[in-house]
Amino acid sequence: MKERTLAILKPDCIEAKVTGKVIDEILAAGFDIIAMKMVKMDAKTAGEFYRVHKDKPFYRDLVAFMSSGRCIPMVLEKENAVEDFRKLIGATDPAEAEEGTIRKKYATSKQNNIVHGSDSPENARLEISFFFSEAELVQNG
Ligand code: IDP
Ligand code: MG
Q1: What is the 3-state secondary structure (H, E, C) of the chain?
Q2: For 67-99, how does the pLDDT look when each residue is reduced to its tens digit (9 = 90+)?
Q3: Which of 19, 46, 104, 133 pairs as cysteine with 66 (C-beta 3.0–4.6 A)?
Q4: Ligand 1 within 6 A of 119 CB?
């Protein structure tokens, strides 16, 4: 069964001008891009997206980072998309990410780690609906 996940190319990805390279890797790994947009989140929106981390010591900086520039959220589809995308991007901290993963190749720090990927099918559904309306998904389905 095909599954969907939410990816976000973070502001550091756009700043470093590696969006094309990262998208190529995503496509080469077998994901279809179902929907994609460019957004500049304000702090309130970024804070809301990452609200599960609101009590973490890194939350304030994370919100500042995610609202510091444009992001590219996208809906990806593939068999086992959630788990496979997490494997493709690698560990949160690039220092701990496996060789060949997107974060290992492009990330510069644990915070500035190029890309977001949903961590469960339930969160994927919630995160997709955070950025995309039902109409945008249906029309691209
Ligand atoms: P994930 O993106 O690999 O799922 P999470 O633990 O959900 O990692 O954290 C969300 C984001 O918060 C990370 O992608 C990263 O940008 C940032 N982050 C997580 N842990 C730290 C930390 O210890 N220091 C700085 N930033 C962090
Ligand atoms: Mg996470």
Answers
A1: CEEEEEEEECHHHHHCCCHHHHHHHHHHCCCEEEEECCEECCHHHHHHHCHHHCCCCCHHHHHHHHCCCEEEEEEEEEECHHHHHHHHHCCCCCCCCCCCCHHHHHCCCCCCCCEEECCCHHHHHHHHHHHCCHHHHHHHC
A2: 999 999 999 999 999 999 999 999 999 999 999
A3: 46
A4: yes
